[in-house]
Amino acid sequence: MSSLPIISLAGLRSDDPAERQATATELGRACRDVGFFYVIDHGIPDSVCQGAFDLARQLFALPAEDKEALSIKRSPHNRGYVAMADEKLNPDAGADMKEAFNIGTDFPADHPDVLADKPFRGVNFWPPIDGWRRRALDYFDHCLELGRTIHRGFSLDLGLAEDFFAGHLSKPIATLRMLRYPPSAGKVEREDGGAGTHTDYGNVTILASDAVAGLEVLNRQGEWIKAPHVPGAFVCNIGDCLMRWSNDTYLSTPHRVRPPAKERYSIAFFLEVNPDSVVDPRDIVKGEAPKYEPITCADYLAARLNATYDHRGADEKA
Ligand SMILES: O=C(O)CCC(=O)C(=O)O
Ligand SMILES: [Fe+2]
After folding, report:
1. Could you tell me which of 197, 219, 229, 315 has the fewest CB atoms within 10 Å of its CB?
2. Does the interface ipTM go beyond 0.85?
3. What is the whole-number distance in angstroms between the Cα of residue 255 and the centre of ligand 2?
4. How many domains does the chain have?
């Protein structure tokens, strides 16, 4: 594998079950062999995607004190602003040279689950920019819909009922994460200095990037291959939760971001499933010994996030 497959999702929206199955099989092959693929014909208009990059540029251009007022350190629910060098995606390496802003599934402050302080069900933080919240949530909703479509493909490929994942995706844990990598000015001390080598935690990640290079993926032969910007496409990858759920049928693949030559923006949408969904390999692979114990999505994700951030106590719930 020296480049990532590009898959048209048009077939998943067909009325013809054979066409849906053919696309699902193509997706499934990528998930088994590579764990990374581009999607085209994904249904998100380019103008919507470009609009999200405008929002990211506006946000990161705010004065430092405005961004600090939105700090993720004030959110027990993984929302808000992560300052430069505040995160280590690879805990064994140095800090990541990037800043980020997380938006989660949007809950009102008086929602019963928010009042009960349930894990991952918190309020979002919003920058003081007119119309920003509405436009960001519009992009979030487009990504969620795409994520649900991709999961229909996974179900068909895995030989499950086509709506197997739909019930787990009614109000899922999902994070829209805007990222800004500063220019490296020719100084690259670590090849993964932008984002440390890691696998993603959830089910699937849907990533949009600008035209500046940086993302690299480790193939099965142990070689780093570039994942260049493909105009109009998203890069998708399998996360550890779906790898676990599928008893390692689908693979989550290590990747990193090399410090970019020029300032680089990307927008990731990390999709998990509903917080209380039980991730149990026995529901997906029949007749195979399960390699993992059942665990709720919220417990699994909390454990992974606690290992990534210093500001989260090791036993923090969400
Ligand atoms: O910015 C990118 O291209 C990838 C970022 C990434 O892998 C992540 O945030 O998990
Ligand atoms: Fe990642």
Report:
1. 315
2. yes
3. 6
4. 1
